[in-house]
Amino acid sequence: MKGNNVMLICESNVIEDYLAESDEVDLSHLSIREKASEILAKSANEEEFVRQSYEFVRDEISHSWDIQSPRITRKASEVLYFKEGICYAKSNLLCALLRSGGIPAGFCYQRLTLGDTPDTGYCIHALNAVFLRPHQKWIRLDSRGNKAGVNAAFSVHEEKLAFPVRESYHETDYPQIYSQPHPKTIKALIQHTDCMTMCLHGLPAEL
């Protein structure tokens, strides 16, 4: 399965694994089911449901760093309730909404510089992969949230991610589509109590 910038590799060949529930992707939670149903009701087709779900998480759920919030959210239902989270949390919510609507979805990761340059160190950034049945392809979507210098968007044919990888900075696109959040990302969310401290000093630097 070819993405626009990277050859995507499914961790599992069983599509049902990308529809499954977990502690973080708590898609049967009433609030998740209600929000997914609300978006479905406004969507003319499957692709529109994916786009609207993505734009909801991107635009209506604040990135914790952008609002300088100390709160750490992890489960999809928590992210929806508090309407905030870092990329790990926001990807959990988008995955849960899509799976609740019957859309296979998974997790992808990038290794990026923590600041603008390599001397600031590195961190793992989370985004989602979604299987669009009408196109029979996986696409990556980054619901991190737009701001100055970041303009991610839904696109079927050309990736519009928040952070294009800069190979000269030793940044990395990991090709795997994981069926569940990577354990290192969940460990970071569980082990910390202050989100700002976690973002500065507690994010994994590699998978």
UniProtKB/TrEMBL annotation:
<dbReference type="Pfam" id="PF01841">
    <property type="entry name" value="Transglut_core"/>
</dbReference>
<dbReference type="InterPro" id="IPR002931">
    <property type="entry name" value="Transglutaminase-like"/>
</dbReference>
<feature type="domain" description="Transglutaminase-like">
    <location>
        <begin position="79"/>
        <end position="145"/>
    </location>
</feature>
<protein>
    <submittedName>
        <fullName>Transglutaminase family protein</fullName>
    </submittedName>
</protein>
<dbReference type="InterPro" id="IPR038765">
    <property type="entry name" value="Papain-like_cys_pep_sf"/>
</dbReference>
